[in-house]
Sequence to fold (96 residues):
Amino acid sequence: MLKKNVNKFGLINTIEGYSYILLVFIAMPMKYLLEIPLAVKVVGMIHGILFIIFCLLLLLAWNEAKWSHKENAIFFIASLIPFGTFFTKSKIKTYE
Fold:
C-alpha cells in the first residue's frame, strides 16, 4: 500500500536536512566571518518554512504509518542535529 504522507515526509526530511547544513555551515560563517547578515536572513527563513512543513508531515506520516512514540521522537530529534536526518532515511524507507 502506497503511503503518500510517508513518501512526502521522506522527501522533506532530505530537503530540510540540506537546508540546515546550508544554514549552519555556509550562511552563518558568511554572517560572522564575511559580515553578510543577509545570508542568514534568507537561508534561515527558507529553513524555518521547511522545518514547519517537516513537523506537519512528521505528524501526518506518524498517523499514517502508526509509528511508535519512540520512533517519532527519534525522527524529530534527528532533525535538530546537522546530518541527523540523513541517518533516518533508511528507517523511513522501510515504511514507504
User: Anything to note?
Assistant: The helical segments are 4-33, 38-65, 69-79, 84-87, 89-93. Residues 4-33 form the longest helix (30 residues). The chain has a mean pLDDT of 90. The chain has one domain: 4-93.
